[in-house]
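in:
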């Protein structure tokens, strides 16, 4: 066997230590920021400003912020369900979410600052009691200028929750705007409502 003895063991160990130190320092270099952190503003927890109320209704009666079912409550004839299944699934209830419930002919406003990449997301659940209503969402970026971004004829609650609506607000970046949620009733709009 022919082995060559290491002539410089201390030099080799020092070089390896320096290499490891350089690799560790390379991982610590300052990275560019990814942008501003994402801010979640839950409108179901922030009190809105009531902009429009139906005649004879107090501002305190226009909306409620509460927990509701994500879809209609289940209706089934329990006498036709096998006993084994009743024990496993005595009741099937939909998930729960926080909601803002508002009366017909009303408009709610939240004043917000819009950053790059901002959007608004909501689920138009529908109504529990029959209502020939129309739901509208819009923004006001300057006094007297309202832009309707979404509208839907109200539907009754169904067993499955409707799809979430997501609206891009990037055209309003770096501005303060009003988010407007409105429920129109049958007939002519009440004074001050969003345009049809």
């Amino acid at each position: 066997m022919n082995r060559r003895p290491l002539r410089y063991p201390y030099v080799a160990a020092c070089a390896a230590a320096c290499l490891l130190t350089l690799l560790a320092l390379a991982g610590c270099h300052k990275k560019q920021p990814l942008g501003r952190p994402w801010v979640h503003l839950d409108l179901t927890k922030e009190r809105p400003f009531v902009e429009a109320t139906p005649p004879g209704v107090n501002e305190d009666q226009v909306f409620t912020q509460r927990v509701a079912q994500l879809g209609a409550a289940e209706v089934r004839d329990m006498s036709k369900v096998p006993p084994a299944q009743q024990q496993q699934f005595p009741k099937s209830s939909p998930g729960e979410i926080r909601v803002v419930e508002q009366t017909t002919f009303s408009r709610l406003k939240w004043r917000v600052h819009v950053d790059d990449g901002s959007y608004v997301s909501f689920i138009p659940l529908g109504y529990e009691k029959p209502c020939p209503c129309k739901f509208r969402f819009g923004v006001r970026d300057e006094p007297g200028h309202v832009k309707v971004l979404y509208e839907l004829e109200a539907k009754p609650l169904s067993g499955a929750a409707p799809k979430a609506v997501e609206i891009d607000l990037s055209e309003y970046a770096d501005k303060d705007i009003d988010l407007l949620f409105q429920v129109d009733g049958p007939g002519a709009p009440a004074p001050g409502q969003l345009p049809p």
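note: Confidence is low (pLDDT under 50) at residues 20-27.
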